Amino acid sequence: MYEDKQNLNALPSPDYTQIGEKPKKRRAKKIIIIISVIILALLIIIISGAVILGLTYYNNIQQAYQLSFSAKADLEASLHKIMNRDFKAGADLIKNANTKFGQAKNLLDQVVIVRRIPYLSVQLKAVDNVLLAGLKLTESGQQVVLLIDDITSPLRNESISYATITEEQKRMILHKIVASESLLYEVKKNIDEADAAIAAIPEEKLVSQLRDGISPLREYLPKIKILIDNSLPLLKIIPKVAGFDQERAYLFLLQNNSELRPTGGFIGTYGILKLGNGEIKEFDTDNIYNLDRSSQHVIKEQSPWPIEKYLEQKDWALRDINWAPDFPTTAGKTIEMYDKENKAIADLIKSGQPIIGEKGTVIDQVIPYEKDIFGVIAVTPEILGGLLKLTGPVVASDMVFTDSNYQEQLELMVGKLYQELDIPISQRKGIIKQLADQIKVKLLTLPLSKLPDVLDIAFAAMDQKQVLLYVKDPEVQQLIFERGWAGEIKQVDGDYLIVVDSNMASLKTDQFVKRNINYSLSWRDDDLIGRVEINYQNNADFTWKSTRLRTYTRVYVPLGSELINSSGAMENDKIKDPQMQAGQVESGSEFDKTYFGAFISIEPHEKGTLVFEYKLPSKIKDQIRINNGYKLLVQKQPGVMPDLTLDLRFGKNIKSANPAEPEKEWFNNSYNNNLALDKDKDIIVNFK
């Protein structure tokens, strides 16, 4: 037994590590093969899916691209139809474009997975926004074109003019304009959404083709938005002002800007204009002295002291009523004085006393009194130039008036020729009524295709304050404010400036005077100093209509400004004050502004300068130091277009400015610019 055990122990031990090795290797290999097959299958599925998905996405993108270009072609075709007054066909094409934009957007909405890829997602999002803008624009475009089609349906005849449209047709047109208000506010909403969609597209990271395609939208959409925003107030203004369903009477003032006054010019002619359902029911004008001369000495309202001193008019009258540079204030005062003077005339007639007009002449009658004045319309003769350019030459009182000679011809007749023609002085301004009537006839008989040109002239004149409007209706007046046609002294939080000249008995000299306003800003220790320098160059001669310039000038600046220095003020001109004493500077406050005023006189072919230097209030300093920005509003006086030079030294580097400076002035700490003050100017500067 023992030996058997020893023998057994002597036998070699089995190698258990070898047991099952070959089966395990075969199994692992099999698993690897299976996994590989599965992975391969998955890859094939994924790749196949990606190919199928890619083809689907490619087809979607390609179809969307084709639909978008087809929509673009429809829009271009619609413009052609609209220009040819085929509004319904134009609207149908816009509707087609809208449908195609919608289809293109639906196709792109299905492209989901690609949107998770950063670069591609930016491109697709941009296209989404473009299509959204296209949908909003075409939806609005169709509505507007159909509205135009409805409103203009009575006006399709090529030979039709405003004069040939019946009053009932005009009333219906005004009615449709009133009824369209809610629709056009919906259009405004769509335009705003389209503008926001385009504004949200990043300017960087876009492929060049897409960037180039979006560029026109970036340029034109804001302009369309401004057009809509500016047009909407007209929906309320025009029907009420034009006498829709209720006749409106206006006090008409012709302000001669050759004799400059605060709201545009000397009021030499007044009148009554009546409008009803878009028609001129009545328009009568007269020499303002016929109403003024007798009544002003009955009323005995004291004139503002500069009028009393420099015009030697103790009693205030309608012709000088526009002393306040804020036109709504002047308009209210004008209606008040018109009422007083007419009542004074009525009392004189009742008592059997004669009506005394200009230079002591006896007047038979004045324009019948209109007690229900709805508003005031003040114009300068400048608007006649644009209208005569459109109508062509007009003949009145055997004189030919053109866009280049109307002012000279009017001055010749009113100031000199009437004497040679034995026209009574009280009737010397009858030529103005005759000229207005002839221009009206020509305008009303123009083809309606010229109506946009007439509106362009009118809107430009109102933007430049050659026409000012005031109405008693608060809602409409607010819209006139918003449109910029009220001629008010505006209220702003930032810096402010308006220079207001008033001709003080220097004939029609202002037409020969060149003006330049220099405004500078600088720090002096802890004070912010404003400096206004008004340079006058009198290019007139001594003639029957021109002489030395005599002007009382007021400068309105932010409330709380303190005058620290001035120069150029005179006591009077060299004839009335041979010693040429220095004048005093008046200081005061009104219209939530501080003002400084002074008199200056400048001989023909000489220059003169008024300077006002003042400390600006803390709120303007804080704009620059704390708010890191600066705003300045320079308002234009109606009736004159001076040059404006700005030298604003902030002591801080400028990041951006609007309007932009000339390129040579960039990259420093001051703003320097030369601008034509043809309308109010907003200057906005941001600092780094």
TrEMBL record:
UniProt KW keywords: Membrane, Transmembrane, Transmembrane helix
Superkingdom classification of source: Bacteria
Residues annotated as transmembrane: 31-58
Entry-linked InterPro entries: DUF4012
Database matches in Pfam families: DUF4012
Name of protein: DUF4012 domain-containing protein
